[in-house]
Specification:
single chain; Jelly Rolls; four-stranded antiparallel sheet
């Protein structure tokens, strides 16, 4: 258990450092990042001081403000990105609010494709802002369990083996309405 907590602290510190660095590279104040991302200045400050672990939604908003995907921001935080993505080196991140786990299977700065393996706990939902889809195209493939996706006014009920390609950028809600963990793969391309 101590190793998991230590790894989460280390990941949090790397994310906080990367957000500060990305903001500094652009010459933005915390208030400017707050304005571009829609995340409060107080929250940005707490994340950068490592007083708060950001949720998936907050990280998506901040990454979008930097014109990055979530994986791109996490990759920069961890400094990875070789041609081969060894299973033992694939970074994992856990949303402190929902318990959602994202394992980054493949991402490289010079490659347009990203692949993530996701586990969504039972009776949980993640609401993703439209801004996180402005510069990407995405598909979801359910590996096990059931998943509900609300996107652009449509409701998609998905089971193992189903694959959904997202439409125009809109808010997306991903829901596990069951009592079992749902595992799915997200593949996206930047462009």
């Amino acid at each position: 258990m101590t190793t998991i907590i230590d790894n989460e602290r280390k990941t949090g510190a790397m994310i906080a450092h990367r957000i500060r660095l990305e903001r500094d590279l652009r010459g933005w104040s915390q208030g400017e990042l707050a304005g571009w991302s829609g995340v409060s200045k107080a929250t940005v400050s707490k994340i950068e001081r490592e007083e708060m672990s950001p949720t998936a939604v907050i990280l998506l908003r901040i990454a979008g403000a930097f014109d990055l995907t979530l994986a791109g921001l996490l990759l920069r935080a961890e400094g990875g990105g070789g041609r081969i993505s060894r299973v033992s080196e694939q970074p994992e991140w856990r949303d402190p609010e929902t318990g959602y786990v994202r394992k980054q299977v493949f991402v490289r700065p010079d490659h347009p494709l990203e692949i993530a393996d996701i586990e969504l706990p039972p009776k949980r939902r993640v609401v993703l802002p439209a801004s996180s889809y402005l510069h990407i195209r995405q598909v979801i493939l359910v590996r096990s369990g059931r998943l509900t996706v609300l996107e652009g006014g449509e409701r998609w009920e998905m089971v193992e083996g189903d694959c959904l390609g997202f439409g125009a950028p809109s808010e997306v809600t991903i829901i596990n309405e069951t009592y079992e963990v749902c595992k799915y793969v997200v593949a996206l391309s930047r462009g």
